[in-house]
């Protein structure tokens, strides 16, 4: 991993810590600002051909964009309309 990639990873980790602190303090303005910085780092990494998979997962987590995957074994309960 290059020094550039190491610095990006370090900055992402710092931002995660700052985001957690801002959320604990209910500082929504700071949260929005920090998420913007995180998006900028992902864009910078992408523009420099750095693998952004892990960073995008962090961004998705921090912005609540994680998809909900339903368990195929959980089927909804359907009541029989003829069952009284």
Task: For this entry, give a set of tags.
84 residues, 0% strand, mainly alpha
Characterize the structure shown.
63% of the residues lie in helices and 0% in strands. The mean pLDDT is 85. The protein starts with a helix and ends in a 21-residue tail after the last helix. The chain contains three helices and no strands. It is mainly α and 84 residues long.
Strand and helix order: HHH
Number of helices: 3
- The helix-and-strand class reads mainly alpha
- What value does the average pLDDT take? 85
Shape: flat
- Low-confidence spans: none
The value of Rg in angstroms is 19 Å
Number of extended strands: 0
Strand content: under 5%
Share of helical residues: 55-70%
Main β-sheet description: none
Distance between the termini: 66 Å
SSE diagram, text form:
Elements: H1 3-24, H2 28-47, H3 53-63
Question: What is shown here, in short?
Answer:
Helix content is 63%, strand content 0%. The chain is built from three helices and no strands.
């Amino acid at each position: 991993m290059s020094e550039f990639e190491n610095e990006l990873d370090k900055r992402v980790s710092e931002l995660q810590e700052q985001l957690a602190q801002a959320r604990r303090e209910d500082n929504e303005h700071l949260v929005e600002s920090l998420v913007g910085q995180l998006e900028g780092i992902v864009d910078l990494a992408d523009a420099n051909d750095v693998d952004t998979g892990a960073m995008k997962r962090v961004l998705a987590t921090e912005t609540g964009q994680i998809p909900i995957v339903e368990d195929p074994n959980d089927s909804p309960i359907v009541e029989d309309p003829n069952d009284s």
